[in-house]
Amino acid sequence: MDQRRHQKLTSSIEQTIMTAIIQGQIKDPRVTSDISITEIDLSRDLSQAKIYISSYKSKNELEKAVEGLNSAAGIIRTILGRTLQTRNTPRPIFIMDERIKEGFYLGNKIVAINRADGITAEDVHKVNKDGLDS
Known about the structure:
Elements: H1 3-22, E1 35-42, E2 48-55, H2 59-71, H3 73-83, E3 91-96, H4 99-116, H5 121-130
Helix pairs in contact: 1-3
């Protein structure tokens, strides 16, 4: 499968799943709209899609959301089958991804270090705007 088609399919899968969640087509109460799809690994033969889920909420709540999505995988596959124009509809496998939470943690650490060193947000903004060579 060429790169453009692969990208189009993964984008369509992401949009379809998030739309289903927001519209309430996934009835599991563990699945809420405050989750994000961070990555989709689509198999070459389109038999499965590993879908990485992240959230800013606690690890426990994220685990429950992933369990809820895996529980609703059959319904989600049916929804994908109606949307995707492919011979095979990939079987969704949802995997917990804590990148968003890790990003918040690292961002807060950087801010704390900068404060300890006397660097203000304005200093950081100036470096980002002007570059390091100015």
